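hey all, quick one before standup. I had two proteins in the batch that finished overnight and I want to keep them in one place so we stop losing track of which output belongs to which input. First protein below, input sequence then structure tokens straight from the run.
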Amino acid sequence: MLQPFLSFECRRMKLSNRQAKTQRNGHPKRRYLARRLEILRAAGREFRLRGFAETGMRDIAAAAALSPANLYNYFRGKHEILFFCQDNSLDRMIAALDKARRMRTSAATKLRMVIVSHLRCVLDEVEGSAAHLLTTALPPRQQRYLLTKRDKYEVGVRNLIVAGVRSREFAPCDAALAGRAILGGLNWSVQWFNPEGPLPAAEIAERFADYLIRGLLARPDAHKRLSFGREPHRAVRGPVLRGEKKRASIR
């Protein structure tokens, strides 16, 4: 009877050791991810100021207060950083879309939440704006991976519009065309975005949502009922570094 007990105790101790090791390794992993996000923001600023082609790894290392050799411990090159920018931004947008889709509210309110979250992601996050600067600079394999995510997101936005048309909240329209018009307008905002402008990114996001939703509504007076309760429409965002609150307006 002793042998089965010892075997059980050995297995239990091995399992406890693995769990303890995982817990010990959790803090370095979090620090590693946090450092990657800091580098991401530094790279985003450099991409915006210099342009992607003109920005080198030494520029990014200097902006992130790292040596070039240390930078390569986190990213193998600027293309990997750009990929991480886009992938991270798409994850947040898809998360916001999924959250809106699960809510028990009108299609117009759901779409409004997605629009606000999308615009705040590309205006209020450095890496979000950097992610839309250059979409063809990545290797084909990475482009295909991101394109699959973008298609998923676009289909989700389109389905919100279709639901609004079916519920008669929205006027009959070509949902695919309307979806592309909305996403195109949101993504183009990085071209005129000025972080030193007089309006906060949150206010610009709300006004954009007003304009875009108003154009879809079957009854114009319904827009007044959508303008209340703006505070819940928050973007799904990653960690924000201290001192990185940004403001935006047309240049």
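OK second protein, same deal, sequence then tokens:
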Amino acid sequence: MSHATTSRKQEHIGDPVSDKPPVSRDKLEEIFQDIQADLRYDFELNGCLNCGICTATCPSAHYYDYSPREIVQLLWTENLEGIYDAMQEKIWSCAQCYTCAARCPFGNSPGGLVMLMREVAIKHGMESAKNVLRPFSRVMLKLISTGNQLSPDMINPDHFADWGPNISKIDAPLAVLRRAIPMPTLNTIKTAWEVNLKTSVELYTIWEASGVLDQLETIDEDLFDVITDIMDEKREDWDDFLEEQEDED
């Protein structure tokens, strides 16, 4: 007598009501394998009791079409199409507060899994990743090319007009705010960007060796070219400085 076998894996069934061209199974499997291959995956996903505690305590779930439980279920059942669909919008709703990880009785970390999915979305150049990161191109430019973030006084309507009318809420008297709410740094545009040349080159080398620049090229080729040009000049300046030191010795 044979016994029926079951599997938690959901088979590829397609979407009969969608007008979008189907994504090939090979592509879906490649995306999932990239997520699963990350060393963090086995630590973040242990199973799922489907209790819903993660979604009940998730701030984002109260305001967006997002559910940490859904993310865990999609990955646990290896629902390839569902995973791909979630990477188009839902994963970008997570606030990365990790309340889900703190509350999950099974030790899962939906927030950690979302982080993996975001990284893979960037790696594959998904349009969702490009749309989310596009407004932050200047932030990435300063972070990668100088090793420093934007200073508070740069976040204003003049510098970020494309952020929309809400940017006006940020344009505030910083000196007054700093006296009322002391900040750990008083960096301004002038002081925040003064980064040691050696430090800047070393940090850029880290971005390069760790694959960050490869991912950046995938989602914003123009920004990649700008940063590359800037850092080529800095490397030349650093080489010139080293030669000068050798000549003096």
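Flagging for whoever picks this up: The chain has a mean pLDDT of 83. The CA atoms of residues 106 and 197 lie 47 Å apart.
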